[in-house]
Structure formats: structure tokens, C-alpha cells
Design goal:
Blueprint (H helix, E strand, L loop, with lengths): L3 E4 L5 E5 L4 E2 L6 H14 L6 E7 L5 H9 L3 E7 L6 H4 L4 H4 L6 H9 L5 E5 L2 E6 L12 E6 L13 H10 E9 L4 H9 L2 E7 L6 E7 L3
Parallel strand pairs: 4-5, 4-8, 5-7, 8-9
Antiparallel strand pairs: 1-2, 2-3, 6-7, 9-11, 10-11
Length: 219
């Protein structure tokens, strides 16, 4: 499938798949979306000294890198990706420059260069494990405080937004764990609720009216 690097509305890059008319991040602003959905409504919402994060769709590493930049606590980060982004594509992404984080270039490189299937210390308070697997293969139980659900949209990959997938997410979270996603589709919200999540609709990032945050409530 053809892949193109494009510039989104806030000046940051993303990968565009013309055949699907789909992007790895919002065309209205990749960095703006990442901050709004995953940092403001996810990382900063989960108020704990240590946070374990599961990212569904590691992709370009943008969410991971921004989380590292914003880390004020100890973070154990696990990124799941079935089809890793090519090294040549990573080299064309402009996140370091757009975030004015040139002094962190080495850390962005490290995120992409460390081996898969092993835990690595990226900084003294941020560890990263990259796992190459399909989302349906995740078997973690009661392991994570926060999930970044950043899969391709339900329009092009509806099988990633089903009750079966959200049941896996529910199992992977600890009690009171939180899942955040850019999606606000009614079918997605209902699938989350069907497996036990308490779901709230929040204002969305630029270009989207709403987003969803789901909590694994104690029974």
C-alpha cells in the first residue's frame, strides 16, 4: 500500500495512506491531536506517582515521544504495533523540530532504534517496551493504568473497534484504569459500554467535535 509523508494543519507531519484516505494522525494537526487526546485527557488525568501505559498503535512514536517530554512521574510504556514504521519514514518526521525539542533528538532516535520485544530504559524515569503483535493477540490482565487507543479509524478497520477488542482492553487495565481515544462514534461508545466501561464524551481535538474516555469501574 502506498504511503506518503504529509504536513498537517499545525505544521507537524504524519503518514498518509491514499488508498484508504487515512492518516496515522489527524490531518487537522498531528501534535495538537496527540496533546489533546492522550496527554491532557489521559496522562494528566491519571494522577499517580507511577503510571503504566499501553499504546494501541505505536506507529510514528509521536504519542510515546510527547509522553516522554511530559513525564513528571515514573512511566512504564508499552507500545503495540503490528506493522512498524520504516526507518526511512521515521527520518522524514519533523516532530522534534515542531516541538522545539532539538535537545531531545537523541531520545526520539532511541525510541525508534531500541529493539522490539524487550524493555529499555530511555531515561531514568521512562522505560519502553515495543511489541510487534496484532491487537487481538494482547493477553495482559490488570497491568495498565492508562491505554492510548490510537488505531486506524473504524471506517477503514472496523475490526479494531469491536466488543472483542475492547474486552481485551478492559482486561488489560487495572481497576479504575482509563482508556482514551480520538474516536467518538456511537458504535465505539456502545462497544465499550457493553464490556463494562464507564464512558464519557469529551470535547475533541481540532477537527473533531468529541472524543471518548472510558474507565474500568470497580464492581
Amino acid at each position: 500500500m502506498k504511503r506518503e509523508i504529509i504536513i498537517t494543519s499545525d505544521g507537524s507531519t504524519t503518514i498518509h495512506l491514499p488508498e484508504w484516505n487515512e492518516q496515522y494522525h489527524s490531518k487537522h494537526g498531528a501534535i495538537q491531536e496527540a496533546y489533546h487526546v492522550f496527554i491532557r485527557n489521559g496522562l494528566k488525568y491519571v494522577d499517580q506517582e507511577k503510571i503504566s501505559i499501553l499504546e494501541i498503535g505505536f506507529g510514528t512514536g509521536l504519542n510515546c515521544f510527547i509522553t516522554l517530554l511530559e513525564a513528571r512521574k515514573d512511566i512504564d510504556y508499552v507500545g503495540v504495533e503490528a506493522y512498524p514504521v520504516a526507518k526511512e519514514e521515521v527520518g522524514k518526521l519533523n516532530y522534534v523540530a515542531e516541538l522545539e525539542a532539538e535537545e531531545k533528538q537523541e531520545l526520539f532516535n532511541k525510541i525508534h532504534e531500541v529493539s522490539w520485544e524487550a524493555k529499555h530504559a530511555i531515561t531514568n524515569n521512562f522505560s519502553l517496551t515495543k511489541r510487534k503483535q496484532f491487537f487481538s493477540e494482547i493477553t495482559d490482565e490488570n497491568q495498565f493504568d492508562l491505554i492510548y487507543f490510537d488505531a486506524f479509524g473504524a471506517r477503514v478497520q472496523p475490526d479494531l473497534w469491536t466488543e472483542d477488542i475492547f474486552r481485551i482492553m478492559f482486561s488489560a487495565l487495572k481497576a479504575e484504569g482509563v482508556l482514551v481515544t480520538y474516536s467518538a462514534k456511537g458504535s465505539v461508545r456502545r462497544a465499550m459500554q457493553a464490556v463494562g466501561f464507564d464512558v464519557e464524551r469529551l470535547p475533541g481535538p481540532p477537527g473533531k467535535r468529541e472524543m471518548l474516555r472510558a474507565t474500568k469501574v470497580r464492581k
